[in-house]
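Please go through the sequence line and token line underneath and see whether the fold suits the sequence. See right below:
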Amino acid sequence: MVKKPRGKKYLIRDATEEDLPVMVDFLAKLALHVANAAPQNLKPDESRRLVTVMRSSLTAPDKLLVVAEVPGAGLVGMGYIYVMSSQGIWEQTSHVEFRSGFIDDVWVEPEFRKLGIFPDLLRRLVAFAESRHAYELVLEYSASNKEAKAAWTRLGFKTVGVRAAAFTSAVQEALANRRQE
């Protein structure tokens, strides 16, 4: 699906195989932005791995990758969402399946921000979630990313929990140390 609103100088469309290398670059920029790190290049193996992962999303029925394209400038943004089902965890009288849309990555190049690209990408992601009967949206952003927090809060997102992360090796080591106590 292609969307070019009247008067807008960009196009929001489904991603294609040819877009994947640029999208991997966007993911790297997003990670560096979140980490407040200096620019650097991905290792070739990591770049290939990400292309492979994203390629599988192009044809998956519950995943959507979209891009923003500006004539003459090329791709300037991307968005990714996937829809998953889960069972309710609270006591219920009948089987209930919840479907949630997980907004995984949204990026717009800095020089193309404030043009309406971000909300148009998000509109496509939300419409996709609703078309898959997911009426809840979930996302995560770094606690240090105040820009992201402000943007998502303005759109109605509220912090409802804390996500903790650890390397499996660290957990294994901690568990091994507990056995020795």
